[in-house]
């Protein structure tokens, strides 16, 4: 589950954002001050930090500076993706200053929650390590440049979502991806209400890969959790 640290000065806004983000599958660590969000960055190791431009004990710019520069005796990911939530009167100068201090994005108020969620996901995608053009697992080969999938040299024809699911699983073949991760990253769904969708695609993908391998064992269902491509490498 993707973890977010949220530093928001206004109680109502903090509770609203926490509620909406959690309903979209994020784990949220909420804070009301710069001190609290820096402690969360160190203790919880969030995947992304959302910080209000005006906190009671510091500015959002100062929080950004401290996160990026680090501090003696403290340890947090200095490269953690960071989005600043601007105030109502923010202008282009505020945006430029935030970006120059190391923010990955600046969202001025008022904003629509759906736009904020889209910006969060865009920043998280940019922060992911790049996927190589060629993926391998046993006899399986995936060439992302040509979208060619082969097993033991035999080409396998996959539908669009089957191919995207395979690419996701093939990035870490022996790792178990939760259904929540797969639904979010492959289908863009918010919740687990569409588990039949992933199960049916996984089943078809398994049949095609195993048939090409003459009875192999690809797309392993880990009951109650999710899927992995192979048992072991």
**What is the helical fraction, as a range of percent?**
40-55%
Total number of domains: 2
Task: Estimate what percentage of residues fall within beta strands.
Answer: 15-25%
Which topology of the largest domain does CATH recognise?
Rossmann fold
Shape: elongated
N/C terminus separation = 24 Å
| Mean pLDDT, all residues | 89
CATH superfamily of the largest domain: Response regulator
Low-confidence spans: none
Topology readout:
Elements lengths: L2 E5 L3 H13 L3 E5 L2 H10 L4 E5 L1 E2 L2 E2 H10 L12 E4 L6 H9 L4 E3 L5 H15 L6 E4 L2 E4 L4 E4 L2 E2 L4 H12 L5 E2 H9 L7 H18 L7 E3 L3 E3 L5
Parallel strand pairs: 1-2, 1-3, 3-6, 6-7
Antiparallel strand pairs: 4-5, 8-9, 9-10, 10-11, 12-14, 13-14
Helix pairs in contact: 6-7, 6-8
Task: Give a brief rundown of this model.
This protein has 233 residues and is of the alpha/beta class. It is built from eight helices and 14 strands.
Structure description:
With 233 residues, this protein is an alpha/beta fold. The chain folds into two domains: 3-127, 3-Layer(aba) Sandwich (Rossmann fold); 134-228, Winged helix-like DNA-binding domain superfamily/Winged helix DNA-binding domain (Arc Repressor Mutant, subunit A, Orthogonal Bundle), CATH 1.10.10. It has eight helices and 14 strands. It has a five-stranded parallel β-sheet with strand order 2-1-3-6-7, with helices on both faces. The two termini are 24 Å apart. The model has no long low-confidence stretch (mean pLDDT 89).
